[in-house]
Write a structure and sequence with these properties.
By secondary structure, this protein is of the alpha/beta class. The protein has helices at about 5-15, 20-25, 45-55, 90-105, 120-125, 135-145, 150-160, 165-170, 205-215, 220-225, 255-265, 280-300, 325-340, 370-375, 380-385, 390-395; strands spanning about 35-40, 60-70, 80-85, 110-115, 175-180, 245-250, 270-275, 305-315, 345-350, 365, 400, 410-419. This is Glycerate kinase.
Length: about 425
């Protein structure tokens, strides 16, 4: 192998290909209804899901899907709206209003197909009565800075919304709702993807309040008053309005990791999967992965080299400063510090949707020389990590990974090659 970066890129591409909407949706098509078929959706991969659905569905459809700016796809019968992510904006607010309007007034003969992928939480702002878009933005910003796991974040989000937590499906009753979900959630609970607009879960407002306190979140007084009131209660999974609905997981991190491992083996490198559901502070998870890689490189255990070590899931970043970065680049900067000076280790950490944080990179590459190369251009890796400034550090040495939007979203991919 002459180019580890090319090898790691091929591993990323294999993981993304396994979540290709056109391949996965075809296997989960619902039965055609007597009445209308309405397609709705939200998420960073939902426009591509809509384009795929148009190709494989041979009946009449009407629909509306919201995705992130720059993530649109060409559709003929389903309208695509773009809005802001990770912080909501007015375009997302209008998209939420129109989605709710789209499913109202349907009958039991009608079918609603919901195309849901990660990122839908931010793309579907729909403040509860008495709250404003500014309130939802404040909640989102507090969540992103808190370091809370995604499950806790989405439980809070659904209790300040009129569309999340199953409410969009409830608005479609009595029509049958079939949700096709691309999971970016550790554990693959479809009710937590995009805060479950069409799939309710058991998380309560008491759970939301517990998480707010546990992670020291400072939310607007109006938001706290709402969550403390019964008006915030979300529909329960046993609500009769959901009785005839279906939920299908069409793609997940686990399936993509298996595809990545298969591609490595095809190229002659054994692969091991640590887990598809790793959570925790990004820099701490990076340190643990670095320790495993060092052990393999120096002692040939617990895996024999050469080997590709894979993991997935969704780490979190507790913001301590206002640097540029994302959870994958922060993971990888901590990893690079942990393998500094160790030969034969090469790694890629990237978000499978193509964007890590708010810049245009999906993540970055690192090896045992990364920290030294940063030092050579005047960049202190440890200071950059302390300042949540991983993007700047990797940009300085030309190691950002920029594949562009991928059209899917099955969370983070971490691939570590020990030669």
């Amino acid at each position: 192998m002459t180019d580890p970066k090319s090898f790691l890129t091929s591993i990323f591409n294999a993981a993304v290909a396994a979540a290709d909407p056109e391949k996965t949706i075809r296997n989960h098509l619902p039965a055609k209804p007597k009445g209308r078929t309405i397609v709705i959706g939200a998420g960073k991969g939902s426009a591509q899901m809509a384009a795929a659905f148009e190709k494989v569905w041979d009946g009449p459809i009407d629909g509306l899907v919201v995705t992130r700016y720059g993530y649109g796809a060409r559709c003929e019968r389903i309208e695509i709206i773009e809005a802001a992510h990770p912080v909501p904006d007015a375009a997302g607010l209008e998209a939420s209003r129109r989605l709710l309007e789209k499913v109202r007034g349907l009958t039991a003969d009608d079918l609603v197909v919901a195309l849901i992928s990660g990122g839908g939480s931010a793309l579907l702002p729909s403040p509860a009565p008495g709250l404003t878009l500014a309130d939802e933005i404040a909640v989102n910003e507090a969540l992103l800075a808190s370091g809370a796991p995604i499950a806790a974040m989405n439980t809070i989000r659904k209790h300040v919304s009129t569309i999340k937590g199953g409410r969009l499906a409830a608005a479609a009753h009595p029509a049958r709702v079939v949700s096709l979900v691309v999971s970016d959630i550790p554990g693959d609970n479809p009710a937590l993807v995009a805060s479950g607009p069409t799939v309710p879960d058991t998380g309560s407002r008491e759970d939301a309040l517990t998480s707010i306190a546990a992670y020291g979140m400072k939310l607007p007084a109006s938001v706290m008053a709402h969550i403390n009131s019964p008006a915030a209660d979300a529909p329960r999974p046993d609500d009769p309005r959901f009785a005839g609905n279906e939920v299908h997981l069409t793609a997940s991190a686990g399936v993509s990791l298996e595809a990545a491992a298969a591609e490595a083996k095809r190229q002659g490198i054994e692969a091991v999967i640590l887990s598809d559901a790793i959570e925790g502070e990004a820099r701490e998870v990076g340190g643990v992965h670095a320790a495993i890689a060092r052990e393999v490189a120096t002692r040939n255990r617990p895996f024999a080299k050469p080997v590709l070590i894979l993991s997935g899931g969704e780490t979190t970043v507790t913001l301590r400063a206002k640097g540029k970065g994302g959870r994958n680049s922060e993971f990888l900067l901590a990893f690079a510090i942990g393998i500094d000076g160790v030969n034969g280790i090469h790694a890629l950490a990237a978000d499978t949707d193509g964007i890590d944080g708010s810049e245009n990179n999906a993540g970055a590459f690192a090896d045992g020389s990364t920290v030294a190369r940063m030092r050579a251009v005047g960049v202190d890796a440890k200071a950059m990590l302390a300042g949540n400034n991983a993007w700047t550090a990797f940009n300085a040495v030309g190691d950002l990974f920029v594949p562009g939007p991928t059209g899917t979203n099955v969370n983070d991919l971490r691939a570590i090659l020990v030669r």
